[in-house]
Amino acid sequence: MSGVSIIGAGLSKFGRQPDLTGRQMAVQAIHAALDDAGLRWPDVQVAFGGSDGSGLADTLVADLGLTGIPFTNVKNGCATGGSALVAAVNAIRSGAADIALAVGFDKHPRGAFDPRPEDWGLPAGYGEAGLMVTTQFFAIKIARYMRQYGISERTLAKVAAKSYRNGAISPNAWRREALTEEAVAAATMVNDPLTQYMFCSPGEGGAAIIVASQAAAERLGARQVRLLSVATRTRGFGSFEVFAPSIQGSGTPTSVSSDAARAAFEAAGVSPVDIDVAQLQDTEAGAEIMHLAECGFCEHGEQEAWIASGATEIGGRLPVNTDGGCIANGEPIGASGLRQVHEIVTQLRGEAGERQVPGSPRLGFTHVYGAPGVSACTVLEAVR
Amino acid sequence: MSVETSTDEHSGGAGEPRPVRPLRGSRCASCANVAFPAAVGCQRCGSGEVIPVDLSRDGVVWAHTVQRFAPKSPPYVPPAEGFVPFAVGYVELPDGIRVEAILDCDDPDRLVGAPVTLVASEPVPRFALTEEVAR
């Protein structure tokens, strides 16, 4: 995918903002991305975006300016941002546009998500019986994984403590108070082995990314980050997902994250070992651990030693979730994937301040995973 | 495997037999993949021809957790005596499928790899330790 660059990235504030709607956060993020790119809204030729539950992205033109451009709504769960980015990139690659926007936003109420079984193709009995609870899935998956590969509860606490520590030095994060491993481990048990502080919370925020053809980026004198690849996938046969009434087939469940990561690495022509900084979906601490292996960064079970050695810390061999990830930023479903891209862009430009990964990172990777079995991954390269 | 209505019964104690209908799934006529609930189309091969089957009553716990907090009501309907934490997980059946189920057990640590038996199929599958069901 040579020839497509990110020339602007912007975020709204993340975390509770009682006076703002999700749409307003999206507009803030878009203006931040435009400012970052040195552009104005009329320069954008095509746009894609969405939220999971906070409104339609194409209505944002009322607040941005009625320039008449095509603006397509995307609703793809946790892959909303990734799918919007794929569409924006394809618009550039096809020659339909030189400058395209991807935007994602959400504003979720307090507390856990409360999905209706009928919307997931399940009998109402699953709700009555108390099985429509997203956190159960993550706990069941990591509980088996820990037994299978020797991952300790201490490692779960270490991952969450890193998120809060990184959040504390990320000016835009929601959770900015460092928590010790002990505090994380001693918090209320939600679903064994996961405590309250090991989970991200449904949150609020907007994120926007502006991509351009190489010709346009050079004409504008833009500060580019090369988008080497972006890939989205839905689950393959035999996968294990949120709200699955069964896991079909036998043997180890397949992973949509592995499928999407492999596709992104192949398209980029690089390997996981080449990556200098990564964003991995951390719905809870165990997810970050499992996604390290599912995305190809280590073998299953190696995470215990990796994390004990500080490999995923800022300054480690593969810094992961340097902005505190979903655990510190919360999970506004539509926005998270593009928040990840924003963080990698910031790191590759060397502008991450106190949380900057040392040594001028060259290659970055982002990964989201969500229900009902979707994943979106990107590989980004610094341009110096 | 037939689809006839099961007449198997588990003794619920006090001499009141409690019939437990087996879990009703499906098997793909083309690739034999087993699904639960019964499939409309086969997830493995895409065939639309699936045959109803009753699933085995006995399996082994594949993985589990404990639901420590009361899920949101609605849709959750807590028991009359109030919410108590319960185990939930997946039971691996010899049919070649793992089924999500509530797991009856006083000590969740005993569930790891434990043989379990179906004790209810509505509103969702429910299994209990085989040694306790047989007692």
Description:
The complex is a heterodimer of chains A (384) and B (135). Chain A is 35% helix and 19% strand. Chain A is built from 13 helices and twelve strands. In chain A, the strands form two sheets. Chain A has a nine-stranded mixed beta sheet. A two-stranded antiparallel sheet of chain A has the order 5-6. Chain B is mainly β. Chain B has one helix and ten strands. In chain B, the strands form three sheets. A five-stranded mixed beta barrel of chain B has the order 6-7-8-10-9. A three-stranded antiparallel beta sheet of chain B has the order 4-3-5, with no helix packed on it. The longest helix of chain B has 4 residues, at 130-133. Strand 9 (246-248) of chain A pairs antiparallel with strand 8 (97-104) of chain B, so a sheet runs across the interface.
What topology emerges from the helices and strands here?
The complex is a heterodimer of chains A (384) and B (135).
Chain A: E1 4-11, H1 22-37, E2 46-50, H2 61-64, E3 71-73, H3 80-93, E4 99-107, H4 125-128, H5 134-149, H6 153-168, H7 181-186, E5 189-191, E6 194-195, E7 204-213, H8 214-220, E8 225-234, E9 246-248, H9 256-268, E10 277-280, H10 285-294, H11 303-308, H12 325-329, H13 333-348, E11 363-370, E12 374-382
Parallel strand pairs in A: 2-3, 2-4, 10-11
Antiparallel strand pairs in A: 1-7, 1-8, 4-7, 5-6, 8-12, 11-12
Helix pairs in contact in A: 3-13, 6-10
Chain B: E1 9-11, E2 17-19, E3 24-28, E4 34-35, E5 50-54, E6 58-67, E7 86-93, E8 97-104, E9 115-120, E10 126-129, H1 130-133
Parallel strand pairs in B: 8-10
Antiparallel strand pairs in B: 1-2, 3-4, 3-5, 6-7, 6-9, 7-8, 9-10
